[in-house]
Amino acid sequence: MDERYTFSLGTQDTATWNDGSSFGLDPSISYIYNQKITRVTLECVSNGTELFEAVGEVGMNTFEFRLRNKCACWNGCKSK
Closest Cα to residue 17, out of 7, 27, 4? Predict the structure, then answer.
């Protein structure tokens, strides 16, 4: 990995699930790496949208992404 142009935003073993219900928000998954915090917000859509969006650095060492997909819906990708 060329660290001049890329860097890690998190590792799988630091993943934390937030169902969003406490604050009326969409569910999200957060990751930590050194002093960086990354949050992926999951938005339930049923119109065929498949979008992974990099929102950006929303604060010092805090990164935000958004995943819009039917699989972000409860049981949205459940096997038939």
Answer: 27
The whole-model pTM stands at 0.82
pLDDT value at position 2? 63
Q: For the chain, what is the domain count?
A: 1
DSSP calls for 7-76: -----GGG-EEE-STTTT---EEEEEETTEEEEEEEEE--SS--EEEEEEEEETTEEEEEEEEGGGSTTT
Domain membership of residue 5 (yes or no) is: no
Domain encompassing residue 25: 13-72
